Amino acid sequence: MTVQYKGMTRRQYLAVTSAAVLAGGLGLPKRAEALETVRQGYQTNMWGMPTYYLLRSGLLEKNGVKFEEFAVPSGNLTMQQMVARQVDLGTYAGQSFILGHDKGGLVGIAVIEHVGKTSRVMARKDLNITKVEQLKGKKIANQTGSSIASIFANTIAPNAGLKKDDYQEIRMNVNDMVAALAAKTVDAMVNVEPYNAIAEADGLAVTLTDFWHVDKMPVFMAATPDFVAKSPETVIAYLKAWRQVANDFKKSPDKVADVIYKFYTDKGYKMSQDTFKKALARVEVDPGFPSDLQPYMQREAEILLQAKKISAIPDWKKALRPDFMQKASA
Fold it and tell me: N or C: which end of the chain has fewer CB within 10 A?
């Protein structure tokens, strides 16, 4: 008599179980199910949209990585979540990363993008302001604690001859600034895409400067040290998916734009696809570790140390981990 084992004959059942035992004995690679679930943080401005696309692309699943997502208005909030160990991975610019490393030992596993072109200082159009130095005595919306806020206060404003007492900083989230301009409760804003493009398209604001000429603004994908130690295999599989995302940004920009455009329209933002594509084109997605990264980070750390925002200059061998990307690229 032939015995059935859930649709298999006894001979088939023994063959399958024997193969499984043999695979375990040979130490073959772990199945994808063994990878950790990633708690992914990202900001809902344009800096976080490559990560949003990653989560919607199906590429993580193809690499065996499951995820939970945690969206916030700005990357410095993701950094705070990671310091509190509420999130495993998240994106933000160098200044926030240095703060996160100082406060929570966070580790940079890749530079995902450069966003200096996405960050601008904009003034209300009706004020006829054309230069940053003309913001003296004005109300400027700024997301305190964010990287763009730090660069404006420590570099762009001083370069224009403005001291902190020369203008009134109005603390607010970047996604609330366009409405504040429209209501004329602020005179200018330090903001990122797509909010800059929306304000420009609606005739509310003009650009005084972008950040590219003073800071190309590398955006890190950072990880908690706990997650890196617990599952380096997950980090490598995760970065393999990012390499595939970069390929989509280069070779299928319209597909990428459609996914991200829907994110904003579903939230009620009104902008044409043409306006949105111009905003997205300001993001340069290229996961890796630029050769000039450490000198740049050293300069930023020295500024933060002088401002007493961090306790010490990071040990870059501990803070920056290019080895994971190297393995993902192999």
Answer: N
Range(s) of the domain holding residue 6: 1-30
Q: Which of 90, 32, 42 is nearest to 65 (CA)?
A: 32
Short-list 273, 294, 313, 287, CA closest to 109 = 287
Q: Cα angle vertex 308, ends 304, 312, to 5°?
A: 70
Q: Whole-model pTM?
A: 0.78
Count the neighbouring beta carbons within 10 Å of the beta carbon of residue 267. Answer: 9
Q: What distances in angstroms separate CA 99 from CA 27, 77, 307, one per listed residue? A: 41, 12, 12
Contact (CB, 8 A) for 69 and 282:
no
- How far, in Å, CA of 211 to CA of 218, rounded? 12
Domain edge (last residue) among 210, 233, 266 = 210
Position 34 scores a pLDDT of 82
The domain total for the chain is 3
Of the chain, the end-to-end C-alpha distance in Å amounts to: 52
